[in-house]
Automatic annotation (TrEMBL):
It catalyses: L-arginyl-[protein] + S-adenosyl-L-methionine = N(omega)-methyl-L-arginyl-[protein] + S-adenosyl-L-homocysteine + H(+). This is type I protein arginine methyltransferase. The keyword ATP-binding does not apply. Coiled coil: none annotated. Pfam families: Methyltransf_25 (PF13649), PRMT_C (PF22528).
């Protein structure tokens, strides 16, 4: 965009982020993700005693689907906040469903929302990204909780757990190497960037060769702001059979555990697929990690937001096995 003196005002990464949510296609994908959308719907509509007459804040409301479920469950008022231009469409969708008197849409960041402090009974949000934390929207939900939620109110979903497992795989390690000499040219830099990117894809269940273990649990009612954007965790993956571990896959579970009808969904490889797929970290180690049944690999996770773009995450994975096996690599989710 050019202003009067012809200087160009560059778009920030934040502008690009909210622009990406202005397109209907991204919302199609989310709405049609049945485990995701049906779990929210089922929880809200099966627990009317929680939602009836409540004032709800929908953080990152998008098409207002969650706001509308809350009205269906008897909410008195919903404040729907989203900083994307999707709000224009949402306003019409809300009108088409006769809910304009109950849902107030505010197009702004929740951090800039003008709303009385401690005034909402419930905060609902679908903030989860790849590797659970990518996009760092959890920070905005915790901000909203600390500012706007009444004493004794609820945040939904109220629990999330991030898991890891090891798997065998062919291919990606070779793909990284091929850039060393690409059509007679040195494209190593591209290969390095590729090796640092986790893959977002479905893992075939037969390829899983270790136990699945918890990386970290998140209780959204008690989580502190300084625990949102960085953490370290240690775990042991145990080989379930003799195999060569080539990559560490991750998935998460989301829980709505308050009230008479708790429910949840998972993004694991062994349940119905979701648009989050799995987030997979390929080991940049020739030959992978060989093991026999019950051998253990100790994995240390060091996770934090990237400097310069707080929506992206750096994930350092350190593995130790047998007496002297050691591996460490830094990945970037962007
Ligand atoms: C994953 S989408 C969920 C949309 C909708 N709630 C649903 O379930 O279909 C997240 C939305 O949150 C919005 N968002 C992210 N961070 C935000 C913030 N700090 N303030 C306001 N909106 C935000 C994005 O623009 C996006 O539309």
């Amino acid at each position: 965009m050019a202003n009067n003196d012809e200087t160009v005002i560059p778009l920030s990464s934040s502008d690009y982020y909210y622009d990406s949510y202005a397109h209907p296609s991204i919302h199609y994908e989310m709405l049609l993700d049945a485990p995701r959308t049906k779990t929210y719907r089922s929880y809200i509509l099966s627990n009317p005693e929680i939602f009836k007459d409540a004032t709800v804040l929908d953080v990152g409301s998008g098409t207002c689907i969650l706001s509308m479920f809350c009205v269906m469950a008897g909410a008195k008022k919903v404040i729907a906040v989203d900083n994307s231009r999707i709000c224009d469409l949402a306003r019409n969708l809300v009108k088409d469903n006769g809910m304009s008197d109950k849902i107030e849409i505010c197009q702004c960041k929740v951090e800039d929302l003008k709303l009385e402090e401690n005034s909402v009974d419930i905060i609902i949000s679908e903030w989860m990204g790849y590797f659970l934390l990518y996009e760092n929207m959890l920070k905005s939900v915790i901000y909203a909780r600390d500012r706007f939620l009444k004493q004794g109110g609820y945040v939904f979903p109220n629990r999330c757990v991030l898991y890891a497992f090891g798997f065998e795989s062919e291919g990606r390690d070779r793909e990284c190497g091929m850039w060393d000499d690409f059509e007679g040219l040195n494209f190593k830099r591209l290969g390095k960037m590729y090796s640092e990117e986790p893959e977002i894809d479905f893992v075939e269940v037969e390829k899983i060769c270790t136990s699945c273990e918890t990386i970290k649990r998140f209780d959204l009612m008690t989580l502190k702001m300084d625990q949102v954007s960085s953490f370290t965790a240690r775990m042991k993956l145990s080989f379930s059979r003799a195999s060569v571990l080539k990559a560490i896959g991750t998935y998460f579970e989301v829980g709505f555990t308050i009230g008479p009808k708790p429910i949840g969904f998972s993004t694991a490889p062994f349940v119905a697929q979701t648009h989050w797929k799995q987030t997979n970290f390929y080991l940049q180690k020739e030959g992978g990690i060989e093991g026999v049944k019950d051998d253990e690999v100790e994995v240390c996770w060091d996770v934090g937001v990237c400097e310069g773009n707080e929506r992206d995450f750096e994930v350092n994975i350190e593995c130790r096995w047998k007496e002297s096996g050691a591996y460490s690599y830094k990945y970037v989710i962007n």
